[in-house]
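Regression test attached.
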Amino acid sequence: MGDPRMKKVREAALMASADELEATFYEAMRQGDLVRLMSVWADDEEVACVHPGGPRVVGGTAIMETFEAIFSNGPVLVSIEQVRRFQSVSCAVHHVLERVQGMSTDGMHTAFVLATNVYVRSEKGWRMVLHHASPGREQDLPEVADFAATVH
Amino acid sequence: MGDPRMKKVREAALMASADELEATFYEAMRQGDLVRLMSVWADDEEVACVHPGGPRVVGGTAIMETFEAIFSNGPVLVSIEQVRRFQSVSCAVHHVLERVQGMSTDGMHTAFVLATNVYVRSEKGWRMVLHHASPGREQDLPEVADFAATVH
């Protein structure tokens, strides 16, 4: 990844918190910006990604190729809501509900996707190591929880 | 959780590695042993679980209730294969392929489920904080990876 823009966005990513990385990840989806999207991932051959209904994809190059294929159809109109966080000193597990909008022959459709994103802090800063998304649904499934959601 | 057996199995879980916790988790599934299964989870209100096709379930009590409902139909004949691990000092992200066998009116069926399990090490030892399982498939989807799988 000798691309000078990649170097710059990776440096910016190194300074970011898990929340900031997550914001960058979804912003890059909305912009269809592959370089920016890949900047949030850890440089580790065991990073992994499961797209809705898809196989397990392991490693930065393989993950980049899947997003390249997705972006070949244009940016992804996605926003996140109902964020839940498990946070330890060096590991952040975020649970998000993705609201994805797409156009089909009979108009605009919305799908809801449950996703888990994991970020790990190394000496290089916080980086994403996992994105696991379940297949989309037409309706949001209400969360089941011990406590009233404090999500936002 | 004042149950004396719970206390004992929790103490055993505190000494375990992420791999040992994972073995205990799936063994407890095969035994339909709710106390043992819950012993691997962190005592944190943000632990979360997504069963295949299900909603997000957050918190130990809510998670326990889902497994109780599952076990009311008997133990789960599940084994894991193709384990991939991202490991840092205090966070382990495991990717597994679950092979689940179930009986229906026309005989025994096998489903393949992609699952992500996350373990975090605290001062109390390693504990599970996430189980996210995608819906089952009749066929295993081959993994896409940068490097030849070194899984076992």
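Expected vs. actual: identical. The CA atoms of residues 60 and 67 of chain A lie 11 Å apart.
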